[in-house]
Design brief:
The complex is a heterodimer.
Chain A: H1 2-29, H2 34-39, H3 49-59, H4 65-77, H5 91-126, H6 131-145, H7 148-161, H8 178-212, H9 215-222, H10 227-257, H11 259-264, H12 270-279, H13 283-311
Helix pairs in contact in A: 1-13, 5-6, 5-8, 5-10, 6-8, 7-8, 8-10, 9-10, 10-12, 10-13, 12-13
Chain B: H1 2-22, E1 30-35, H2 50-56, E2 64-66, E3 76-78, E4 81-86, E5 92-97, H3 111-122, E6 139-146, E7 149-154, H4 161-165, H5 175-180, H6 184-187, E8 195-201, E9 205-210, E10 224-229, H7 233-241, H8 254-264, E11 268-283, H9 293-301, H10 305-312, H11 335-338, H12 348-361, E12 368-375, H13 381-393, E13 397-404, H14 406-414, E14 420-426, H15 432-437, H16 455-466, H17 470-487, E15 491-504, E16 507-508, E17 526-527
Parallel strand pairs in B: 1-10, 12-13, 12-14
Antiparallel strand pairs in B: 2-3, 4-5, 5-7, 6-7, 8-9, 9-10, 11-14, 11-15, 16-17
Helix pairs in contact in B: 7-8, 9-12, 16-17
The chains are: A mainly alpha, B alpha+beta.
């Protein structure tokens, strides 16, 4: 197993290199740069080409592309993301600030999704074609059809109009004030968690239905084992593998992809940072964020594969 | 009887006195306001976004300021300078500074600091960015003859000089710090303002607390402020509606105002003003047929601005029909005079008939197709774009809209590829020198995306800029406006933006002005509860 993990980690290097080349080139194909975004978008009367040239020089944008890429790669090799072109602050600081919020939200949403998806999926499978199954299916299809940001907007409107209350608009870390923290994050976590639970519920239901028709389940039933035992000891371990994949990949996605939901709840997370970095043509920050998300995806994938082996003894990696 | 009369007089006196008492500023409280964008750095001399002014201005003072109670946003009053004089040849302005003004580090502010700050703005050292040094091209030197006197020597008389000394961007920094590191203020905050810096959590908020040693005794009234960065306008509205914030200083749309008022009712106060921002249509003079002034005039004559003012003001942040100056401000052309310019005629049928005639005379066929390039910003670019295309259709023009993503927009039209495009400017003080600079020949101002050269227009600009007499200057401004918008129709104006600030009724001591860059020092603001 250890050699397998090492091999997988080594295989990440060319993948990440490919991602790096792609994002570096794509960003520079898009028209505009950070200097234009800074000095041409405010309707100012005074525009100085001299000032813009000076800024480009300071940021290294006047350098040939290969040199810009080499500088970036040299920094990455030292785990130094460099400075944001927009704020001139270290990128590691910019990301660190938002990472706590995004990680907590992703964990909360994934937990909600898991807590909803697994029991509901099992219940729907066990009670197939009964009113319980139909109710779970309606619940999950509604979740699939409802964008989480829209659900978020509805939540805010209801809180404002019915309860005359609104969640806090500034993030408070959970160790500073758990109540304020949860008062802000529980709503987006519910909105997002419900959306992702819907995918998981359907996946859990179909996987469980498939497993329940397997010979070994029939044998267990014939032996007179109780249903609860059959489900937890025999069926769940086999049915949960695809659900685990879906929820894990969603978790990786949630870390950087909750752009609109973050906007609706004014969350200072990685998704908003991503959008701002792109709209400001902050090349260095965008590149760093893409690399971070790509790395998280690769690591989550690896973790899922390892979990597969743990859950299913038939799976062995060499 | 006499007793009754006495009681009546006392009651009357109390009635008169009560509102006054109710309006007495109250100390305490934290003002919370959303800011739709975040400052890239803290250096006001370098940046251009209101995202810097709103949260950072309370930490600083400027030499002069625009009177916080002046709704026109044009009247300069003392701030760090307590008075000023002008030499008889109008070439030397001498400012007397207040004594006893302290920086937040406890050191005294003197003329050395003012000189160093203005030297950085006007004559920045190599590698130091100064966004508005073009505004001070007439300044030959800044001198500090003694600790409390600063003089500015000009090359030419300048009608706008005093206004430019009230620029909200020109924070006074500490000379010793600038001498050690001219970039220090990009990442640090230390001024003489009514509030001292507490923290900036990037992407989240900036907090300031009351400066107990502020030179204007008794101010500020607030204990502090909290500027929260909220990009999404729906979330800003929700923050005001949910009473998580008191005020947003940039502005809301009519629909957003109505939504806040419907929720908060009497708990909200609405202030409105013409806004010193305008979208205008640029026509690339290097592209046919827009090199022909008859075609450009036809395009402006097709627009029914008076009707648009009524209809678009219900859905967008535009309202007033305007020329080159914000309506209601000192140099604005009176409506009766404005109505004589092409495109401003009250009789739209006559105007459109003339538009068709000019197009025909210029050889532009019925159904002529061109591309209108617009910026991918919903408010107010989108409704104005739709309106323009419809208006031009009514004189037989077939217009296709090309929408470009905001960050790439100005870079694209700057290259000169667009035919007809939406252009934009926002002023930080209502002043002809600032508001008309945009329209100078492209060789003088690269922000003229119409790419024309007009020495006559340039000469009129320079003339008004050097004319100190108010009446005379006003006439030249009108000549400039007539040439720009009517005779040559280099650019065409849409409608003046309209600034709408619905805020908590607890907020007092703040007056709306036409510029969202003004009146953000917060020293006069107080909360009633």
């Amino acid at each position: 197993m250890a050699s397998y993990i090492l091999k997988r980690l080594a295989a990440m290097v060319p993948t990440l290199l490919g991602v790096a080349v792609l994002i570096f080139l794509l960003l520079r194909v898009v028209p505009g740069d950070v200097v234009e975004a800074r000095y041409l978008t405010q309707g100012s009367q005074f525009q100085s080409q001299e000032l813009m040239n000076q800024e480009r020089q300071k940021l290294g944008l006047d350098q040939p592309l290969w040199r810009q890429f080499a500088t970036w790669m040299a920094g990455l090799a030292r785990l130094d993301f460099g400075l944001s072109m927009w704020t001139s602050s270290p990128i590691s600081e910019e990301i660190k600030l938002r990472f706590a919020l995004s990680l907590q939200l992703a964990l909360m949403a994934s937990t909600i999704a898991t807590l909803l998806a697994i029991p509901l999926g099992i219940l729907a499978a066990v009670k197939q074609d009964t009113w319980v199954d139909y109710a779970v299916r309606v619940f999950s299809i509604a979740g699939l059809a409802t964008p989480s940001f829209w659900l978020g907007i509805l939540m805010i409107l209801v809180m404002l109009t019915v309860f005359k209350w609104m969640p806090p608009v500034v993030f408070t870390p959970i160790w500073v004030n758990p109540w304020d923290n949860l008062a802000q994050l529980i709503w987006p976590a519910l909105a997002v968690g419900y959306r992702y639970s819907a995918v998981g519920t359907r996946m859990m239901r179909s996987a469980m239905l498939e497993v329940l028709r397997e010979d070994y389940i029939r044998t267990a039933r014939a032996k007179g084992l109780r249903l609860k035992l059959i489900l937890t000891r025999h069926a769940l371990k086999n049915a949960i593998l695809p659900v685990l994949t879906v929820i894990s990949l969603e978790f990786a996605f949630l870390l950087g992809g909750l752009v609109v939901t973050e906007q609706v709840f004014n969350l200072n997370g990685l998704g908003m940072l991503f959008v701002e970095a792109i709209s400001r043509r902050d090349y260095t920050l965008t590149q760093a964020l893409v690399m971070l998300v790509a790395t998280v995806f690769l690591l989550v994938n690896l973790a899922v594969d390892i979990a597969y082996a743990w859950l299913d003894p038939r799976i062995r990696y060499r | 009887m006499e007793r009754l009369a006495r009681v009546a007089v006392l009651a009357f006196a109390a009635m008169l006195a009560l509102p006054g008492l109710a309006q007495s500023p109250r100390s305490g409280g934290e003002l919370v306001f959303p800011v739709p964008s975040e400052p890239p750095s803290y250096d006001g001399h370098r940046e251009e976004t209101f995202g810097l002014i709103h949260p950072i201005a309370p930490f600083y003072n400027t030499l002069l300021r625009i009177d916080p109670n002046d709704k026109s946003g044009t009247k300069a009053v003392p701030s760090l300078a307590e008075s000023w004089t002008v030499s008889s040849d109008k070439l030397t302005y001498t400012f007397k500074l207040r004594k006893g003004v302290k920086f937040h580090d406890g050191s005294e502010m003197t003329s050395k600091d003012v000189k160093a700050s203005y030297d950085k703005i006007i004559f920045p050292p190599a590698g130091v960015g100064s966004s508005r040094k073009g505004q001070y091209a007439d300044v030959a030197a800044v001198e500090a003859p003694d600790a409390y006197t600063v003089s500015f020597r000009l090359k030419e008389p300048s009608a706008s000089f005093i206004s430019s000394m009230a620029s909200p961007w020109n924070f006074i920094y500490k000379a010793d710090i600038l001498a050690k590191d001219p970039h220090w203020y990009e990442k640090n905050i230390m001024g003489t303002g009514p509030f001292t810096f507490v923290e900036h959590v990037k992407g989240s908020h900036i907090v300031g607390k009351k400066n107990p040693n502020y030179w204007d005794k008794g101010k500020p009234y607030l204990d502090g402020f909290r500027a929260i960065f909220i990009r999404d306008s729906a979330s800003q509205v929700a923050a005001i509606r949910g009473e998580r914030a008191h005020i947003q200083f940039r502005g809301f749309s009519p629909a957003e105002r109505d939504s806040i008022v419907s929720t908060l009712g009497k708990k909200v106060t609405v202030q409105e003003s013409p806004w010193d921002c305008i979208l205008m249509v640029g026509m690339n003079h290097e592209k046919k047929p827009f090199d022909d002034k008859r075609v450009r005039r036809a395009l402006t004559l097709a627009l029914d601005r008076n009707q648009a003012s009524k209809s678009l003001s219900k859905i967008a942040i535009v309202k007033e029909v305007a020329g080159v100056q914000v309506p209601g401000t000192p140099y604005a052309t009176p409506p009766a005079e404005l109505a004589k310019l092409a495109g401003y005629w009250p009789d739209i049928e006559k105007s459109r008939a003339e538009s068709r005639r000019l197009l025909k005379e210029a050889g532009v066929p019925e159904g002529f197709q061109f591309t209108f390039t617009n910026r991918g910003v919903p408010m107010p670019y989108e409704p104005l774009g739709v309106w323009l295309i419809d208006q031009w259709r009514r004189v037989g023009l077939n217009v296709q809209q090309q929408v470009i993503e905001p960050a790439a927009y100005f870079g694209t039209i700057r290259k000169g590829d667009a035919q007809v495009f939406m252009d934009f400017q926002c002023g930080y003080i209502v002043e002809p020198d600032l508001d008309m600079y945009k329209f100078l020949s492209s060789e003088r101002n690269p922000a003229n995306y119409g790419r024309y050269k007009d020495p006559v227009l340039d000469a009129l600009y320079d003339k008004q800029s050097r004319t100190i007499d108010f009446e005379e200057r006003g006439q030249i401004v009108q000549q400039f406006e007539k040439r720009l918008l009517d005779e040559e129709a280099h650019y065409l104006m849409t409608l003046q933006w309209h600034r709408i600030i619905p805020h908590s009724a607890k907020v007092h001591g703040w007056t709306i002005t036409p510029s969202h860059y003004l009146n953000n020092t917060l020293d006069t603001v107080w909360l009633s509860q």
